[in-house]
């Protein structure tokens, strides 16, 4: 028999996993956009707009995909609680924009150069990937070496994205 507390902990664990997965997707999207903007940036306003549009557009696409996949699996439109969950998961990933937008804002105020702001954004986004990896493995019962492999793989993939973008735009 499944107790209510088991259902709640499973549900909250699934929600945490969904939020973490979404954050990783959006961090990779933001990283790719920031890197592309480093070679095509015209102004701080254009950079901020492009990054915002790319991230929000991706989140909307994921939201629609989650709703459609729910309909495909359950043959019904999500109930209000399920729709709130899907929207909450998607909107929680907007947090990846905070530091890049602050850095771009500092460039708009001439505190930093735009190139410096984009470089700092790249570093912050790779650090965010490492943090997401840490959140994913910190409480999991895995040997320490496996946890390190997960963290290392996530950071390496972030660096590979940076190198691919630099190669493509270099």
Automatic annotation (TrEMBL):
Keywords: Membrane, Transmembrane, Transmembrane helix. It comes from Nakamurella leprariae. The chain crosses the membrane at residues 51-77, 89-112, 118-137, 149-168. This is Uncharacterized protein.
